[in-house]
Amino acid sequence: MTNPSLLILPGDGIGPEVMAEVRKIIDWFGAKRGIVFDVSEDLVGGAAYDLHGTPLHDDTMAKAQAADAVLLGAVGGPKYDVLDFSVKPERGLLRLRKEMDLFSNLRPAQCFDALADFSSLKKDVVAGLDIMIVRELTSGVYFGEPRGIFKEGNERVGINTQRYTESEIARVARSAFELAMRRDKKLCSMEKANVMESGILWREVVTEVGKDYPEVELSHMYADAGAMQLTRWPKQFDVIVTDNLFGDLLSDLAAMLTGSLGMLPSASLGAPMANGRPKALYEPVHGSAPDIAGQGKANPIACILSFAMALRYSFDQGEEAARLEAAIEKVLADGARTADLMGPDGGTPVSTSGMGDAILAALD
Ligand code: NAI
Ligand code: MG
């Protein structure tokens, strides 16, 4: 049997710095747990532009399509701001998402108890929080036609169209139900069926797909009420599924319940491949952080947690993912903090590699 394949695209800025720590973790799982990946590395974003004149070479795209999972660092930086829109580093990432047809974006909001004080909410509201927002990523108002700014009589009118087909709703709903089955079997769907026809259809289709998942307790909530409930008592939720626009807002909101950008992983999943695994891209939520790049200050945890998501959702290694998360929890409980996890009076931060090494030690 061949080993599962993992394509690593470190990208720009702090991307390569945090990815170097993930490489150590991947090596640890190979050496100590016998979980061996066929790892290859390639360029994306500005790094690819510098060499190829394009932010994603066709060969890299083909490798991504063939890989069992792709792990990406971050793209972009001030050096590339002058480039034409068509070759900007971000276009590399957008091409990956589009051509892999990654319609289901998973954004966890998970509270590490050692960081509960870091939240803007009361400690008991967030302690132990572990929820997942599933955002539809390839359709909805960001893509619907007609769109544009038009002249109407003697004034301008800006138009965007919220548009969802039944099959687009059904496939993201299915991915959310599958996720709920692996978690607490509780799914809340959010839309605004009270004022939007696309929301009425969303609710109908999610309910229909739910008939295939009788074990999952399905509820529906208007997205504005959902925003209130997320800040009031987030632990009432387990998995939330919603459209592209509401998901953009609600996933940012939920993520910030628990702390720093340096802690936030994500997964974007597509249709199952021939081997049953979904097409998958894992990446931290943060960008290339040019303000701290090259200084060893970046927090590698967001990228390491993205790898934990890959273990869980692409490679069926939920227990090993939990082992990695527990190691991170321990390191944080022991007091290790990168600079982004410290207040102004915080003491001495650990470096990017210091944090990676501490997590390795905790794994041992
Ligand atoms: P950013 O996420 O790169 O940085 C925002 C702030 O958070 C900065 O102060 C940064 O130092 C800090 N930060 C981010 N990640 C951190 C980490 N792991 N550890 C410690 N501190 C961290 O967002 P920004 O500044 O808006 O964008 C910078 C560049 O990144 C731009 O070129 C932007 O286009 C690109 N970008 C790329 C993304 C991606 O690759 N997915 C996402 C967001 C932005
Ligand atoms: Mg956003």
From TrEMBL:
<comment type="pathway">
    <text>Amino-acid biosynthesis; L-leucine biosynthesis; L-leucine from 3-methyl-2-oxobutanoate: step 3/4.</text>
</comment>
<keyword id="KW-0520">NAD</keyword>
<feature type="binding site">
    <location>
        <position position="224"/>
    </location>
    <ligand>
        <name>Mg(2+)</name>
    </ligand>
</feature>
<dbReference type="GO" id="GO:0003862">
    <property type="term" value="F:3-isopropylmalate dehydrogenase activity"/>
</dbReference>
<keyword id="KW-0460">Magnesium</keyword>
<feature type="binding site">
    <location>
        <position position="135"/>
    </location>
    <ligand>
        <name>substrate</name>
    </ligand>
</feature>
<keyword id="KW-0028">Amino-acid biosynthesis</keyword>
<dbReference type="GO" id="GO:0009098">
    <property type="term" value="P:L-leucine biosynthetic process"/>
</dbReference>
<feature type="binding site">
    <location>
        <begin position="77"/>
        <end position="90"/>
    </location>
    <ligand>
        <name>NAD(+)</name>
    </ligand>
</feature>
<comment type="function">
    <text>Catalyzes the oxidation of 3-carboxy-2-hydroxy-4-methylpentanoate (3-isopropylmalate) to 3-carboxy-4-methyl-2-oxopentanoate. The product decarboxylates to 4-methyl-2 oxopentanoate.</text>
</comment>
<dbReference type="InterPro" id="IPR024084">
    <property type="entry name" value="IsoPropMal-DH-like_dom"/>
</dbReference>
<keyword id="KW-0432">Leucine biosynthesis</keyword>
<feature type="site" description="Important for catalysis">
    <location>
        <position position="142"/>
    </location>
</feature>
<dbReference type="InterPro" id="IPR004429">
    <property type="entry name" value="Isopropylmalate_DH"/>
</dbReference>
<feature type="binding site">
    <location>
        <begin position="287"/>
        <end position="299"/>
    </location>
    <ligand>
        <name>NAD(+)</name>
    </ligand>
</feature>
<feature type="binding site">
    <location>
        <position position="248"/>
    </location>
    <ligand>
        <name>Mg(2+)</name>
    </ligand>
</feature>
<keyword id="KW-0963">Cytoplasm</keyword>
<keyword id="KW-0479">Metal-binding</keyword>
<dbReference type="GO" id="GO:0005829">
    <property type="term" value="C:cytosol"/>
</dbReference>
<feature type="site" description="Important for catalysis">
    <location>
        <position position="192"/>
    </location>
</feature>
<feature type="binding site">
    <location>
        <position position="252"/>
    </location>
    <ligand>
        <name>Mg(2+)</name>
    </ligand>
</feature>
<dbReference type="GO" id="GO:0051287">
    <property type="term" value="F:NAD binding"/>
</dbReference>
<keyword id="KW-0560">Oxidoreductase</keyword>
<dbReference type="GO" id="GO:0000287">
    <property type="term" value="F:magnesium ion binding"/>
</dbReference>
<keyword id="KW-0464">Manganese</keyword>
<comment type="subunit">
    <text>Homodimer.</text>
</comment>
<feature type="domain" description="Isopropylmalate dehydrogenase-like">
    <location>
        <begin position="5"/>
        <end position="359"/>
    </location>
</feature>
<dbReference type="InterPro" id="IPR019818">
    <property type="entry name" value="IsoCit/isopropylmalate_DH_CS"/>
</dbReference>
<protein>
    <recommendedName>
        <fullName>3-isopropylmalate dehydrogenase</fullName>
        <ecNumber>1.1.1.85</ecNumber>
    </recommendedName>
</protein>
<comment type="similarity">
    <text>Belongs to the isocitrate and isopropylmalate dehydrogenases family. LeuB type 1 subfamily.</text>
</comment>
<feature type="binding site">
    <location>
        <position position="107"/>
    </location>
    <ligand>
        <name>substrate</name>
    </ligand>
</feature>
<keyword id="KW-0100">Branched-chain amino acid biosynthesis</keyword>
<feature type="binding site">
    <location>
        <position position="224"/>
    </location>
    <ligand>
        <name>substrate</name>
    </ligand>
</feature>
<dbReference type="Pfam" id="PF00180">
    <property type="entry name" value="Iso_dh"/>
</dbReference>
<feature type="binding site">
    <location>
        <position position="97"/>
    </location>
    <ligand>
        <name>substrate</name>
    </ligand>
</feature>
